[in-house]
Amino acid sequence: MKILTAAQTKQVDQATIQAENSSSDVLMERAATAFTDWLTARQSPAEAGEVLVLAGPGNNGGDGLVAARLLHQRGYSVRVWVLPAEKYSADFTVNRQRLPAVVPVAELASEQLPTLTTNTLVIDALFGTGLSRPLEGIAASVVQHLNAAHARVVAIDMPSGLLTDAPQPKDSAVVHARHTISFELPKLAFLLPQNAAFIGDWHLLPIGLNREVIEQLETPMYFVDVPTLAGKLPKRAKFGHKGTYGHALLLAGSKGKIGAAVLATKACLHSGVGLLTLRTPAVGYDVVQTAVPEAMALVDPHQDFLTELPDLKSYSAVGMGPGIGQQTATQEVLAQLLREAKMPLVLDADALNLLGQQRELLALLPPDTILTPHPKEFERLTEPARDDYHRLELLRAFCQQHQCYVVLKGAYTCLGAPDGRFYFNSTGNPGMGTGGSGDVLTGVLTALRGHSFLSALDAALLGVYAHGRAGDLAAQHTGEAGLSASAITRFLGPAFQELTTTEPF
Ligand SMILES: NC(=O)C1=CN([C@@H]2O[C@H](COP(=O)(O)OP(=O)(O)OC[C@H]3O[C@@H](n4cnc5c(N)ncnc54)[C@H](OP(=O)(O)O)[C@@H]3O)[C@@H](O)[C@H]2O)[C@H](O)CC1
Ligand SMILES: [K+]
Q1: Does 449 show up as a binding residue in the annotation?
Q2: Residue-wise pLDDT tens digits, 435-484
Q3: Residue whose CA lies nearest to ligand 1 atom number 32
Q4: N or C: which end of the chain has fewer CB within 10 A?
């Protein structure tokens, strides 16, 4: 699914209206109807109580006015508050006139703000994608009043005061919504941690925007859902054998962190790898042979950490990092791997920290290497980010400079590609923020990079999605608090099965 900017969204709106030979108020009616359907399906008139609609001067306010009319028609008690402005949009004005006279309308003023309790249901239709600067004056006062009351706010399209595609001053007034109801495609602002408190839970409602125009618009940002991945993971070949699916090598573990090696190994085995060898220090040998008998163990001469790179010639992909520690000898193994590897690489955890300590090694990264940092690890490779938008700029520059893929882990894990594109993942849950979850991802990605039939991009997209989906499936059994990395590995099989293409009849 594409992520469009506010300007592009406007373009799609206009093209949709043109293609249908209709008018903008028809599209507004559709958007507000979808919004009202969403709300009335969740709140009866009695549960909602008196609904306050705060309407701004543009088309976001217009959406709010249509919603007010529809709610009134459906038996809800509604009161409208309008933000004073020098000019109102045409569709605001039309829908202001269409509002039945029995619906009370008042103008917002500093000395006249609505009375709110924590139970008041407020529809925030002050500003949407047309916001061009931080709120001030009466608009800022209204938003502060709303936030102070902790009212139940449902925002239309955007929480008012939040910019769609860019950061804003830290102390600017932004509505704290419980739900943000937007249309058709996600917005970049929804996916960034710094906006979580403003957006609440977000939902997309279809309003019949023109598909062809969306197809044609160029964007560097995508939200990865099932249709994005359709057809990328072929069914296993009937006459395939373990060689068809690659021989992966994992370099993982050190004394006290053999568990990380076990988790990555299990995950790799549950992600369709043909053969798997684990290189681990001698201390891990008995553990690995017992915990994961399907994997071959190739022990390092050192008891506690990795000191030697094995011969690489048999392997189709190599993953390094989970639990390896940061010994100098291990750093030398990493450097040697970067110099010698002709096969795809996946680097995680301490392999990234070691790269951060000796940045000249970054110049050795083979093209299409996949790195899987969390934000702190990423900063060790680059520089501290001012905010989430700056972090994305750093991500783009890093991927372009080193011609690599970076899986920046988070609630919406963002895959940065060497061509400057971003792919935000849609699966996963807060329960996955637990020790070992990243080790599992390394195993998954190493397995997929060993498949000769997948590109680096498709391997990364599928792996990140399947890892999150496995976490979601596991959480259905364990709950989020009870989710462990081991449980994620158990659901990788079903997650991949869902993504596997079926043959047409
Ligand atoms: N996405 C869709 O498919 C549909 C979206 N719809 C809704 O339309 C809005 C976008 O409407 P638009 O009129 O473009 O923008 P807004 O309503 O957000 O606001 C524009 C007006 O607000 C003024 N403005 C901007 N920033 C401020 C500010 N900080 N303080 C005060 N006033 C501000 C702006 O004035 P300018 O001086 O900047 O020109 C405008 O007057 C979208 O979000 C959806 O809710 C449609 O319903 C159809 C489908
Ligand atoms: K809004």
Answers
A1: no
A2: 999 999 999 999 999 998 899 999 999 999 999 999 999 999 999 999 99
A3: 131
A4: C
Tell me whether residue 171 is annotated as binding: no
In this structure, which residue's CA is closest to atom 11 in ligand 1? 59
* Integer Cα distance of 77 and 10 in angstroms: 32
CA-to-CA distance for 122 and 103, rounded, in angstroms? 15
C-alpha atoms less than 13 angstroms from C-alpha of 282 in its C-beta half-sphere:
4
Beta bridge partners of 303: none
The β-bridge partners of 124 are: 54, 155
Work out which ligand 1 atom sits closest to the CA atom of 9. 1
Q: Is the domain 229-499 a CATH 2.130.10.10 member? A: no
User: Domain-by-domain residue ranges, the chain?
Assistant: 6-219, 229-499
Q: Residue 127 phi/psi, 5° resolution? A: -140, 150
Q: Which helix (H) or strand (E) holds 123?
A: strand 121-125
State if pTM tops 0.90.
Answer: yes
pLDDT tens-digit map of 153-172: 999 999 999 999 999 898 99
Would you say 324 and 350 are in contact if contact means Cβ atoms under 8 Å apart?
Answer: yes
Query: DSSP assignment, residue 2?
Result: B
5 is in an annotated binding site: no
The answer to ipTM > 0.85 is yes
At residue 73, what are phi and psi to the nearest 5 degrees?
A: -60, -30
Range 6-219 classified under CATH 3.40.50.10260: yes
- Report the distance separating Cα 151 and Cα 112, nearest Å: 17
Closest to 82 (Cα-Cα) out of 90, 74, 71, 93: 93
Q: Are 255 and 283 in contact (CB under 8 A)?
A: yes
User: Is 229-499 in the same CATH topology as 6-219?
Assistant: no
Q: Provide the 3-class DSSP secondary structure of residue 282.
A: helix
Ligand 2 centroid to residue 416 C-alpha, Å: 30
Name every protein residue with a CB atom under 6 angstroms from any ligand 1 atom.
9, 13, 27-28, 31, 56-63, 89, 127-133, 135, 139, 156-158, 183, 207, 209
Sign of the Cα torsion 463, 469, 472, 476 reads negative
